[in-house]
Design brief:
alpha/beta; Glycine dehydrogenase (decarboxylating); Aspartate Aminotransferase, domain 2; pyridoxal phosphate binding; globular; binds pyridoxal-5'-phosphate; 7-stranded mixed β-sheet; 37% helix; GDC_P; glycine dehydrogenase (decarboxylating) activity
Length: 958
């Protein structure tokens, strides 16, 4: 009978369908996994593992579940509240034409956006080539010796340049001079960052740079109101004072302007936004920093360098890692971890696509249109020189002019009570010029377009030197060539679109396509961060809803989405704690307790806010050593500012004493910072704001589905309890003021605003029940991996829970390779590289414990994929046994020689003590699907000794 086939409507209308798309294992998988672990049910497992003392008092109050289509429709309505006007605001953000081939094949392509930071060099050659192109583009255009890839935004790049100058310069001065035509948001962030370090910021006319003592001077080139000033005299004056000259420069302008490096600049910073990344309400965009060669070992951020692999072929890898926070901790040069890799790749490819001639043509058009506009405006123009920006005297008509522009669909920038400015960009057309002039009751001299006009760039500042001469910027100008270049690079890399990436502490989960779709909607991507507030109502609502939901998830009272990476959230959170102490007359409270297991960004951030780091011990289970903590709390009681803990700990265990730890620190006058990078083990189950945290940052690019982008963008919201809400960051340049707030920590008020829709979609589609299920399955999956591997490997830290095979871990587990290394010479790095032959990205290597691998499977991986990974790990363990048994020698075995390239396997003279088949196809499934690694093991030491950070000559490949 047909009737009996009818299903209840509820089942047909499954609104919760997305939950099952996001979560890998289904009910049958779950049952099978539970039986391997030895747990009766998922509930029972969670009850056994998560301490009862920290359980949430009540569920999360979130909107009911929405399907993908429903959530997209709802978000579209939010987006529609933003008004997309033609922007002439400038001030560091310009409209740009993202080439379609780059939009679709990079920005919207999971092969690029789901990749991880390129720590495993061999499987990251494609994105590192793109980053070396980025570094080459920046060094060429700025005329500096070396550039990194990348910085979080122009303002924080300027702040990092300030600390770099203080570190490497010889001046004893604590003054940084800042020209008064630097971008206002840059000045604002600089003030925030200078204060805790004891630097004073002195603002004056650019021409006054170097007229009094300073350790550094920062000037904008061209200035925010358009003036183009020569730098050599400023550099000479600043150098005579013993200081360094920092130049914030616009890369498009530099195609026509004499480079900062040719005029004595010591450090150059800036944004690459207008190279193809939409304005995005302020981010994400890649900023850059470049400097003289002598400062390279102090350069913050990531640096990609050229090295060689074991076969002597050129290969890329991250260079000078020893500068970074992971190694140097509180002595690090910066706390930057996640940067802006995806936007950096976009910007580099914009330069590859247009080439030097194309970029110059774009810049010349912008400069010529600006000159034509100036001609028509005549006496009203205030600047004597310009590239793309004119300051226009409006007298008493300023507000009326701005209003008239808005009525005509345009935003000008208000520069003073008596003036506005207009900044042109590559999208500006003749019709646009006519519309701008119409606001002033003028019309353009059409004949000028045909005759051509001289630009307003001073003759002595015209660029004569060549740039982007390397073949990579000159051979991919047809779309066919470009498309294939992008595909060829992506094919070299392992990203989430090929296999699981079991990186502990990094939560490489699904970045669903529906979550990604809204980020390029013009209503989100096309707005300027300093547009009038009434044009940004969609973002205001997005901010309000998302922070409200995240408050539910964390148990905190207030959240700011401004920090654009976890490290920046740490910085903002510690500043809030510091401001609170100061408000109570306790400015002397500067001691920050940090367990030895902490992520390197924690001590680096504490140092940046002027706190003094005191390291506390962990016991052999990975928990905080209570006796040591007590002793240090007592010893430092008078000066205790805070403790920074990670929960569950970086060792992947739920410390049952966490409440006592929080109480102990509070009873000695300190506040508790809970690093929220491990929130994927907590959402819906326990809330740090409830169990004792005062402040946390979240990594929306871990727990809340923003993809890693190959190392950024990220979002690191700072979350606080009620009495710290007044200290969340303000943003005066964007009109968000408050008496008590700490200053701005990012260039834009909502930081990396345009990727926030990703987390919004995730929460909206999962709802409370789905988010809680995700947490539980993440814990289940980690315990399944631990259970399957427990007989083969030492699980380094576990809860030692009776009846749970593997002992019980949180959402990740640490495999200790050290005993195997002692016995066979095969270490964690060899296992990591051998996994490449099996088609996997390695787990986190040697963090938080050297010689270990930390595996975090996440909830998104199916049981089949978890099994494929466990099978690989077990097969590798059997290979290690062959070395132990003497079948293979310590010096020649498939582990120490991994990874194996096709070329090395096809050599006529195969001399190894194992077969080619063992090298390439250690498990049968690889015969059907195989990732071929493009290079052999990369030599890190060689690369650091022979530092090359720009495109190698083509002969290197011959
Ligand atoms: C990832 C991580 C951070 C830093 O976050 P970024 O976004 O990379 O700056 C801090 N702490 C822990 C424990 C992390 O895993």
């Amino acid at each position: 009978m047909l009737m009996s086939a009818l299903k209840p409507l509820g089942e047909l209308e499954n609104a919760a369908e997305f939950q099952a798309r996001h979560i890998g294992p289904d009910a049958a998988d779950e049952a099978a996994m539970l039986s391997v672990i030895g747990a009766a049910s998922r509930r029972a497992l969670i009850e056994a593992i998560v301490p009862a003392s920290i359980k949430r008092s009540q569920g999360m109050q979130l909107p009911g579940v929405a399907t993908e289509a429903q959530a997209l429709a709802e978000l579209k309505a939010v987006a529609a509240k933003n008004k997309v006007l033609k922007s002439y605001i400038g001030q560091g953000y310009y409209d740009t034409l993202t080439p379609g081939v780059i939009l679709r094949n990079i920005l919207e392509n999971p092969a690029w956006y789901t990749a991880y930071t390129p720590y495993q060099a061999e499987i990251s050659q494609g994105r590192m080539e793109a980053l070396v192109n980025f570094q080459t583009m920046v060094t060429d255009l700025t005329g500096m010796a070396i550039a990194n890839s990348s910085m979080l935004d122009e303002a924080t790049a300027a702040a990092e340049a300030m600390t770099l100058a203080a570190r490497v310069g010889k001046s004893k001065s604590t003054v940084i001079f800042v020209a008064d035509d630097v971008l206002p948001q840059t000045l604002e962030v600089l003030r925030t960052r200078a204060k805790p370090l004891g630097f004073s910021v002195q603002v004056g006319a650019a021409a006054e740079a170097g007229q009094s003592e300073c350790f550094a001077a920062l000037v904008q080139y061209p200035g925010v109101s358009g003036e183009v000033r020569g730098l050599q005299a400023l550099a000479d004056a600043v150098h005579a004072q013993g200081g360094l000259l920092i130049v914030a420069a616009d890369l498009l302008a530099l195609t026509l302007l004499k480079a900062p490096g040719e005029q004595g600049a010591d450090i150059a910073v800036g944004t690459t936004q207008r190279f193809g990344m939409p304005m995005c309400n302020g981010g994400p965009h890649a900023a850059y920093m470049a400097c003289k060669d002598e400062y390279k070992r102090n350069l913050p951020g990531r640096l990609v360098g050229v090295s060689v692999d074991v076969h002597g072929n050129p290969a890329y890898r991250l260079a000078l890692q020893t500068r970074e926070q992971h190694i140097r901790r509180e002595k690090a040069t910066s706390n930057i971890c996640t940067a802006q890799v995806l936007p950096a790749v976009v910007a580099s490819m914009y330069a590859v696509y247009h080439g030097p001639q194309g970029l110059k043509r774009i810049a010349q058009r912008v400069a010529s249109y600006t000159a034509i506009l100036a001609q028509a405006l005549g006496e009203r123009v205030a600047n004597g020189s310009a590239f793309d920006t004119l300051e226009i005297k409006t007298g008493a008509a300023t507000e009326a002019t701005l209003a008239k522009a808005v009525a005509a669909g345009m935003n000008f920038r208000r520069t003073s009570a008596q003036s506005v400015s207009v900044s042109l960009d590559e999208t500006t057309t003749r019709a646009d010029l006519a519309a701008i002039l119409a606001v002033f009751g003028l019309s353009a001299d059409l004949a000028a377009f045909e005759k051509g006009v001289a630009t307003l760039i001073p003759a002595e500042l015209q660029r004569t030197s060549a740039y982007l001469t390397h073949p990579v910027f000159n051979r991919y100008h047809s779309e066919t060539e470009m498309l294939r270049y992008l595909r060829a690079l992506a094919d070299k890399d392992l990203a989430l679109d090929r296999s699981m990436i079991p990186l502990g502490s990094c939560t490489m989960k699904l970045n669903a396509t529906s979550e990604m779709i809204p980020i390029t909607w013009p209503e989100f991507a096309g707005v300027h961060p300093f547009a009038p507030h009434d044009q940004l109502q969609g973002y205001a609502q997005l901010n309000e809803q998302l922070t409200g939901w995240l408050c539910q998830a964390t148990g905190y009272a207030g959240i700011s989405l401004q920090p654009n990476a976890g490290s920046q959230g740490e910085y903002a959170g510690l500043l809030a704690i510091k401001a609170w102490h100061e408000s109570r007359g306790d400015a002397h409270r500067k001691i920050c307790l940090i367990p030895e297991s902490a992520h390197g960004t924690n001590p680096a951030s504490a140092q940046m806010v002027g706190m003094q780091v005191v390291v506390t011990k962990c016991d052999k289970e990975g928990n905080i050593d209570l006796a040591d903590l007590k002793a240090k709390c007592e010893q430092h009681a008078a000066n205790l500012a805070a403790i920074m803990i990670t929960y569950p700990s970086t060792y992947g265990v739920f410390d049952t004493h966490v409440k006592e730890i929080c109480a102990m620190v509070k009873s000695h006058g300190g506040r508790v910072y809970v690093d929220g990078a491990n929130m994927n083990a907590l959402v819906g189950v326990a809330a740090p704001g409830e169990f004792g945290g005062d402040v946390s940052h979240l990594n929306l690019h871990k727990t809340f589905c923003i993809p890693h982008g190959g190392g950024g963008p990220g979002v690191g919201p700072v979350c606080v309890v009620a009495d710290l809400v007044p200290y969340l960051p303000a943003h005066r340049s964007a009109g968000y003021q408050s008496e008590t707030a700490i200053g701005a920590v990012s260039a834009a008020p909502l930081g990396n605003a345009a990727v926030l829709p990703i987390s919004w979609m995730y929460v909206r589609m999962m709802a409370a029940e789905g988010l809680t299920a995700a947490t539980e399955v993440a814990i289940l999956s980690a315990n399944y991996v631990a259970a399957r591997l427990a007989d083969a490997y030492d699980i380094h830290f576990s809860g030692n829970i009776a009846g749970v095979k593997g002992g019980g871990v949180a959402h990740e587990c640490i495999l200790d390779i050290r005993p195997l290394k002692d016995a066979t010479g095969v270490g964690a790095e060899d296992v990591a590289k051998r996994l490449i032959d099996y088609g996997f990205h390695a787990p986190t290597l040697s963090f938080p414990v050297a010689g270990t691998l930390m595996v975090e499977p996440t909830e998104s991986e199916s049981k089949a994929e978890l099994d494929r990974f466990c099978d690989a790990m077990l097969a590798i363990r059997a290979e290690i046994a062959q070395v132990a048994d003497g079948v293979w020698t310590r010096e020649d075995n498939p582990l120490v020689n991994a990874p194996h390239t096709a070329e090395s396997l096809l050599k006529a003279d195969w001399t190894h003590g194992y077969s080619r088949e063992v090298a390439a196809y250690p498990v049968a499934t690889l015969r059907r699907q195989k990732y071929w690694v493009p290079v052999g093991r990369v030599d890190n030491v060689y690369g650091d000794r022979n530092l090359v950070c720009s495109c190698p000559p083509m002969t290197a490949y011959e």
